[in-house]
Amino acid sequence: CGYLSRRWPLDRLAFFGGVTMALGLAAAGAVPPEPGLVFACGLISTLGSGFLAVPLRTMMQGLAPLHRLGATLGASQTLDFLGIGLGGLGRVLLRPLGLDARGTLIATACLLLLGLWWLARGISAAESANARSSAGKDHPIPR
User: Fold this and answer.
1) Which of 2, 14, 69, 73 is within CB 3.0–4.6 Å of 55 for a Cys-Cys bond?
2) What does the DSSP 8-state code read for residue 142?
3) How distant, in Å, are the alpha carbons of 29, 40, 42, 139 from that of 80?
4) Distance between CA 53 and CA 78 in Å, rounded?
């Protein structure tokens, strides 16, 4: 991901990673429950998670004001762990809907794609605001 980030914009790498992660999760829910197949889907999803997390962290560091960088990264990590906790709660909440473990993986993939769409809108808005605030300055828009 670090190598590719020299050639590709970070938002595109993050989107690629999120879609790859969602495809891996959906595939894990759709394939027969054989360990080798589920493991391969997990590897695809894990690869995607790296392509999602690394560019997002890099963009956060580039977009945060220097005097708020530590607080921004700390809040981000807190939200990560909140998401981990809510993941366990999500399984409990999805069970009454009749979703088994495989259905939960597919539902998670759909929620991830919805979150990516929402995130892409926010990144686009942040880049537009950054472009407006740096108009006429000698530094490029961070990508």
Assistant:
1) 14
2) P
3) 23, 24, 19, 31
4) 14
Using alpha carbons, list the distances in angstroms from residue 84 to 23, 55, 87, 89, 98. Answer: 19, 20, 5, 9, 22
Cβ–Cβ < 8 Å for 130, 142: yes
- Kindly give the interhelix angle for 101-133 and 69-94, rounded to the nearest 10 degrees: 150
pLDDT of residue 42: 95
In this prediction, residue 135 carries a pLDDT of 42
| pLDDT averaged over 10-residue windows placed end to end, the chain, 143 residues | 80 90 96 95 95 86 87 90 86 82 90 88 66 46 49
- In three-state secondary structure terms, 134 is coil
Under DSSP, is residue 139 helix (H, G, I), strand (E, B) or coil? coil
Give the position of tokens 């992660």. Answer: 21
Structure tokens at 73: 């990264």
